[in-house]
Amino acid sequence: MSEELEKCSMVICSGDMDKVMAAFIIATTAASMGRETTMFFTFWGMKAIQKGNLTGSSFFERMLGVMNRGGVDRIGPSRLNFGGMGRWMFKKMMKAKGVTPLAELRQTALDLGVTLLACQMSMDVMGIKREDLIDEVADVVGAATYCNLALQGKTMFI
Amino acid sequence: MSENVTPAMVLDLKGLLCPMPVVKLAGAIKKVEVGAIIEATATDPGVMADIPAWTKSTGNELVKMEREGKVITFWVKRLK
Fold first, then answer.
1. Is B2 inside any structural domain?
2. Which residues fall within 8 angstroms of residue A85, CB to CB, at 6 or more apart?
3. Using the beta-carbon criterion (under 8 Å), do A32 and B26 form an inter-chain contact?
4. Residue B30, min C-alpha distance to chain A (Å)
5. Which domain holds residue A40?
6. What's the pTM?
7. pLDDT tens-digit map of A73-124
8. pLDDT in tens, A34-60
9. Is the minimum CB–CB distance between B41 and chain A shorter than 8 Å?
């Protein structure tokens, strides 16, 4: 594929299962179309690239870590979650239909060369450390790095 | 599909849902020579729109697509 193709960049601000899923589906597809694709995870979106361990050192950070625990298998749908029941139900329904599970979709994105970036500021605010993120995260960056990529092509905000 | 063209690769995408048919096809096309044809079968009706979109975007050729019941068969030629 030629280098003149526009890049595809996405901001994932949501940590909801449905939105993260949509983000990974679009990212894998864009990468399959030969687009250099980057996903920038910020705020609640961080959950999709966290290992899933408890985070934080201060009182507030640890409280947040407990109430907003990360991990791609732990995140629930934006609606009808009912304290985890919704997540369970959706996972079951999707499995029955043969939809690729979220964790596998994330791995597919990585296999296709999609770059995962984490937001430094969100990590500072929430007390999330680099070692709380999955190893595959390429870098921890700020908005300027993202904007530099976004200006080279199409961008999406999820 | 004319009988005299033998596909360089046969892909079974049956049972796969979006985005996997496109992802698998994109991976497979890199493994065949330019000019070669991939024959694929799928059951996700979404491929009827998505495969043409993919070939258009990547500059490859959708030679033919046909549907028989639930099974959709298509032939894609690698152009670049």
1. no
2. none
3. yes
4. 10
5. 7-157
6. 0.87
7. 888 888 888 888 888 988 899 888 888 889 999 999 999 999 999 999 999 9
8. 999 999 999 999 999 999 888 988 999
9. no
Identity at B32, one-letter amino acid code: V
Spot the catalytic one: B1, B17, B18, B79. Answer: B18
A91 falls within a domain: yes
- Residue A108, domain member (yes or no): yes
Q: Closest residue of B to A104, CA-based? A: B20
Q: Tell me which residue in A1, A29, A98 faces B17 most closely, judged by beta carbons.
A: A98
Q: How many domains does chain B have?
A: 1
Q: How many CB atoms lie within 10 A of CB B51?
A: 22
Q: Please, are residues A4 and A151 in contact by the beta-carbon 8 Å criterion?
A: no
Domain extent for B44: 9-77
DSSP B61: E
What's the structural domain count of chain A?
1
Q: Is B2 a catalytic residue?
A: no
Q: Do A32 and B18 touch (CB under 8 A)?
A: no
CATH number at residue B20: 3.30.110.40
